[in-house]
Amino acid sequence: MRAPTFRRLLNLWPPFLFSGIRLLNLDDDYTEARVVLRLRPWNRNYVRTQFGGSLFAMADPFWMLLILHHLGKDHFVWDKAGSIDFVSPGREDVYAHFKLESGLLEELRAAAAQGEKVLRWFEVPIKTAAGEVVAVVRKQLYVRLKPKHR
């Protein structure tokens, strides 16, 4: 699917639409994505800061989606584990920038080439517009070549 179409569809996905999460940019080659979580009355917590579940949700699918797009239908790409470290209160809109580093996809393909499962951790800081880190989300992905391609 073309990146602009995918971005529009993801922005209409109810969990993102109703929690203030927007995919601002998705590069045409699916190597970078920028996401914003707007602070709204319905997504702030009791102390009027960003709700932790929304912070995690804004980062949840993107490593998997970017990598799955590149590895294609020959591989399983699943989320295996995740964690979030809350660094400072989110009192404003926050942003996350996902970027696939050069060589990563070749590394994953090579590691999974014989059908072994590959577990790899990815990390993204969630920051304010001024660059203050609000949280750090870590996701572990499971990558494996599908049986019919081994």
From TrEMBL:
Against Pfam families, the record matches this protein to: DUF4442 (PF14539)
Q: Where on the tree of life does the source sit, at the highest rank?
A: Bacteria
Matching InterPro entries: DUF4442, HotDog_dom_sf
Know the name of this protein?
DUF4442 domain-containing protein
The record lists the organism as: Dyella flagellata
The root-end lineage is: Bacteria, Pseudomonadati, Pseudomonadota, Gammaproteobacteria, Lysobacterales
